[in-house]
Amino acid sequence: GQQVMQIPQYQHVQEGEDFTTYCNSSTTLSNIQWYKQRPGGHPVFLIQLVKSGEVKKQKRLTFQFGEAKKNSSLHITATQTTDVGTYFCAGSGAGSYQLTFGKGTKLSVIP
Amino acid sequence: DAGVIQSPRHEVTEMGQEVTLRCKPISGHDYLFWYRQTMMRGLELLIYFNNNVPIDDSGMPEDRFSAKMPNASFSTLKIQPSEPRDSAVYFCASRGGYTEAFFGQGTRLTVV
Q1: Which pLDDT tens digit goes with each residue over A26-66?
Q2: CB of B18 less than 8 A from some CB of A
Q3: Chain B hits for A9, Cβ within 8 Å
Q4: Does the pLDDT of residue A2 top 80, yes or no?
């Protein structure tokens, strides 16, 4: 079945440093979504990428979808304490509405 | 809309007891997902429904787990009998087609 791998599992950064998490799928994806889960909370949708090579930005967050539609990344510039949480990627295969989540990257920001 | 509503928020039960988790999806959403979250295994998809019909239940751990969706506004996940290793946070999520998934607040299950 479809597998989505995400690295790193944990990342500790000093406030103001950049942060990147990477996502790789065992199969070609039709689209990929990113979610953020705050401690004690539930996953909340951030963005969806559909096109090969797509890049989208949300303020300090930059999302990329690989040319082969098998990998993706999320980059945060100049992290803030409000960025703390676990970031998940979730992929769907062609013709499937199933969302397979990566294990997430837990981000800690040291003030 | 109040979003995806799950109940109960917390459940503590003894090993061997039956546990029923409930979910009300967002009105109009045609897909409903049940996930289990643990530190070790992350977010695991257990089962998902399309228009109340189970599409893929390959993630259901074993026969002790069952899920139903009798109508478009209600779904249950039942564990019978429960075991300590079932302790986790169970999330229900709904989506309309290829849109974003909306998660409920989750049910934190502890089996002692």
Answers
A1: 999 999 999 999 999 999 999 999 999 999 999 999 999 99
A2: no
A3: none
A4: no
**Cα B39 to Cα B23: distance, rounded to the nearest angstrom:** 23
**DSSP secondary structure letter of residue B96:** S
Which residue's entry shows tokens 């229900």?
A: B92
Residue type, A103: K
Distance from the Cα of A38 to chain B's closest Cα (Å) equals 12
Q: What is the mean pLDDT of residues B69-86?
A: 97
SS3 category, B4: coil
Token readout for A99 is: 């969302």
From B82, B54, B86, B83, select the one nearest B67 (Cα to Cα): B54
User: In this structure, what token pair is assigned to residue B34?
Assistant: 């049940």
| Total Cβ atoms within 10 A of residue A106 | 18
User: How far is it, in rounded angstroms, from Cα A21 to Cα A74?
Assistant: 5
Q: Does B100 contact A48 at a Cβ distance shorter than 8 Å?
A: yes
Q: Which residues does residue A22 pair with via DSSP β-bridges, in sequence order? A: A7, A73
Contacts of A42 in chain B (CB under 8 A): 91, 103-106
Dist. CA B37–CA B89, nearest whole Å: 5
